[in-house]
Amino acid sequence: MVNRDDVAAVLELIRPSLQADGGDVRLVDVNEDGVVSVELQGACNGCPLSSMTLANGIERILKERVPGVSHVVPAEQMY
Questions:
Q1: Between 78 and which of 3, 26, 37, 67 could a Cys-Cys bridge form, CB atoms 3.0 to 4.6 Å apart?
Q2: How buried is 11 (Cβ within 10 angstroms: 0-12 exposed, 13-18 middle, 19+ buried)?
Q3: pLDDT in tens, the chain (79 residues)
Q4: Beta-sheet strands, E only, within 19-74
């Protein structure tokens, strides 16, 4: 099981990079399969590059730093 506090701590490390571009991220949920649901906010919300931000940024870093993270999805696509 993925530790939600560990995920939140890593998101705090990522947050300044997103905020520098006018965006932000909010942790919505972590399910028992290791799927992390986040809400991109500010300039990141609806940005055409948001899927790249999730996959190449947030997901990659979370997988590297938090054991058990399998996937990161936008909150509305949680499965």
A1: 37
A2: buried
A3: 899 999 999 999 999 988 998 999 999 999 999 999 999 888 888 778 888 878 788 999 999 999 999 999 998 754 4
A4: 23-30, 35-42, 71-74
